[in-house]
Amino acid sequence: MMAALLAKCAALCAALHSDCHVQKPANEAVQILFTALRLAGVDIAGWGSTHGRHPLVRWAACHRAHLRHILALALALFAERLCRYPPTDKDPKTPAAKAGGHLDRIAFAVAEAALPNALPEGDGPPDAASVLAWDEQETRRVRAASTATAAAADAAAEAAGEPKRKRRPSAAAPCLPMVLATVDLPAGLGTYPLTFDKKYFVYDDAGRLCGVASHRRWYYHEKLNGASPVKAMFTYYHERDNWPQVFRELRDACAIAAPAS
What we know:
Layout: H1 10-15, H2 24-39, H3 55-62, H4 64-84, H5 95-98, H6 102-112, H7 128-159, E1 180-181, E2 192-193, H8 211-224, H9 245-257
Antiparallel strand pairs: 1-2
Helix pairs in contact: 2-3, 2-4, 2-6, 3-4, 4-6, 8-9
């Protein structure tokens, strides 16, 4: 689970994540950045790529502003995790230190590396139409490369008298379509992908998808008010009744709206 877009400010966004989600998502953000940078055309050493066809990874690879956002959120999550789970004598390393030199290398690449497969920076972050057009073109490129690699492997196997390997036909296809929020976003972003059920989508008066509001609704219903057996899923600073105000308001609103039994 990558961190949710729960606020426009990265530090507040991290603070709104429960105790459970200030732990793994920071490392997952680092993995996303490695994968997205490689999709954008950067040759970078570090953790292996993962979930390369996930909408958030594809969106991150699309533009430098998107990469900068994921990096800022990763750093904020590491800092928030340190506040809630300070180092101990038994485990003196900070969460960010456990990532080795990856963060410095990623930060340099995000700031300085050429991104040949990404959209040009131009005058600002791309709009939804530009992101979707880029994604369609990139998907065709990945599919073509995957098909060419498979064909070469089959030809080599046939020449060697070996049977062809069975391959998944959808291996290079996107797992999910890219649905983009276009308002209620952090400064410097023109879009943000929504990767959950549309029943949690929030629209403004003009019918545009809202980023933060949709993520907050999803996070409340699926995480804070879900059925997970993990105790830390429902706590902040190790207390269950210490929810941030925005989620207490959602809980109260849902209780008022609930039909009488």
